[in-house]
Amino acid sequence: MMTWSVRGGMVLSLGGELDIATASLVTDRVRALVAEGHVRIVLDLAHLEFCDCSGLRALLRVQRIATEAGGWARLSRVGDMIRQIITLTGLRDVIVCYDNVSAAIAVRGTTVERGAARS
Question: pTM (2 decimals)?
Fold first, then answer.
């Protein structure tokens, strides 16, 4: 996991597998970011190769953690396999995927209107 600051938020880059063995590491890192005052978080999934139900649950938790702190969490550069999992589980309207970090940051507010700058 790598983290860096961009204008308007923080980016957390995930790689490898997001599963039962790694899900808590991601949620713990997001909790730490929120505790530091970073409540607008983009998860860059360009290098994520696998995600199971524990990983999907972690993505939902990350959104909840950021939202409860008054911010948001968004996904960017989501691969086809992860995007398909999100769609098949009926979470496409809950977990919004953006083409890149800039697009995820550009959307204003804590919620996204249907069809706004997402794919």
Answer: 0.86
Task: Write the DSSP symbol of residue 7.
Answer: T
We report the CATH number of the domain holding residue 62 as 3.30.750.24
Domain that holds residue 45: 2-106
Question: Positive or negative, the Cα torsion across 54, 119, 74, 102?
Answer: positive
Q: Among 40, 39, 58, 46, which residue's Cα sits nearest to residue 16?
A: 46
Number of separate domains in the chain = 1
48: tokens are 């994520």
Averages of pLDDT over each 10 residues, the chain, 119 residues: 90 96 97 97 96 95 96 95 92 89 83 39
